Amino acid sequence: MEVRKGYKQTEVGVIPNDWNVRRIDDVCKLINGRGFKPFEWKETGLPIIRIQNLNGSDDFNFFTGIYDKKLEVETGQLLFAWSGSRGTSFGPHVWQGSLGLLNYHTWKIQIQETVISKEFYLHALRFLTAFIEGKAHGAAALVHVQKWEMESFQFPIPPTLAEQETIAEALSDADALIEALEQLLAKKRQVKQGAMQELLTGKRRLPEFSKRWETKKLGDVFEITAGGDFDPTQASDTQDEHFPYPIYSNALTNKGLYGFSSYNNHQAGSITVTARGTLGNANYRNHDFTAIGRVIVLKPTQPLDGRFISEFINNRIDFVVESTGVPQLTAPQISKYEILFPEFPEQTAIAEILSDMDTEIAALEGKLSKAQQVKQGMMQELLTGRVRLV
């Protein structure tokens, strides 16, 4: 493959001519934590920093004995969890807590600050982590890497601290945007959760409604059936004029969408409810569809707002497992569960409020996803030198 002018082919790919390829142990020292035993755990003292604490848990054990000074971790220290879960705990972290002691399964990273910027190295390690996970030992979810292996991994590095810091600043700005969106999204979800607690229980009534809520069984207001079999010759993975109707299964992924069918066996306005494995996940369907497998379908037998009912099922009904083995829910079982039932106009008013919140949350989720994609693209461009900022 031809390499463009000003770039060179290296062990880690194509990078600028003036960039270098360095091993992990060229730029830092990895210091392992200590395995503190349960009998050493105390109620007070210095906190023991475990993997769970790197992910935000404030559940600490403490130590009051004699320890090696190298185990101390101060605020802002760069760490690397060498044993943990893919995509979450495994990989680099910056310690944000107070002075603590490093537990086993995590390295404290002492960098050569004359060679590499700490902020740049954090982003470089994050970029490298996916590759390290691919080489790591362990099961699909839990992985670990040995110290000698970690030290041998290579990565590209700009020649000057100034360029490294410029790259780090750009990526940190992207991180700040992502964090702000995550915090706003969490707040919006909390607001909706609070609104549901009030609106779905009748604790807070909308001023234009005064009629008392009734308690009814689901079987009193719905015709309840199970999905059953379907004709695979009448199905497709893509939706078009020949296969216009969504097929919904008992799955949670993509709200149960399985494919598309040339025929439908349920009408718009019905609700699907998962009935095997994870029980009681309800989705309102505002279109004709086909239901298959163990998913349960609730077809209304009187005027009601399916959006309100779906929210109530998802947030106010705790389905009890009545079978051994894989949890299952049958049509006769679900028909016995009760629901607080306001008059139809009030159902719609509540559903509109919650739907507007969902729309706002979905928009924020879209912005967050886009920001995360942009950040990933920035890392690919900036940490390989494809785009130069200085």
List the helices and strands and how they pair.
Elements lengths: L6 E4 L2 E4 L3 E4 H4 E5 L13 E4 L1 H4 L7 E2 L8 E2 L4 E4 L1 E3 L5 E4 L5 E3 L3 E6 L6 H18 L1 E2 L3 E3 L2 H6 L1 E4 L3 H39 L14 E4 H4 E7 L6 E2 L8 E4 L8 E5 L9 E3 L8 E3 L5 E2 L1 E8 L5 H11 L14 H5 L2 E4 L2 H39 L8
Parallel strand pairs: 5-11, 19-23
Antiparallel strand pairs: 1-2, 3-15, 4-12, 5-6, 7-11, 8-10, 8-12, 9-14, 13-14, 16-25, 17-24, 18-20, 19-20, 21-22, 21-24
Helix pairs in contact: 3-5, 5-9, 7-9
What does this structure look like?
This protein is 33% helix and 25% strand. The longest helix has 39 residues, at 161-199. A 4-stranded antiparallel sheet has the order 4-12-8-10. A 4-stranded mixed sheet has the order 6-5-11-7. It is built from 9 helices and 25 strands. The mean pLDDT is 93. The protein has helices spanning 24-27, 51-54, 118-135, 147-152, 161-199, 218-221, 306-316, 331-335, 344-382, and strands at residues 7-10, 13-16, 20-23, 28-32, 46-49, 62-63, 72-73, 78-81, 83-85, 91-94, 100-102, 106-111, 137-138, 142-144, 154-157, 214-217, 222-228, 235-236, 245-248, 257-261, 271-273, 282-284, 290-291, 293-300, 338-341. The chain is elongated, with a radius of gyration of 28 Å.
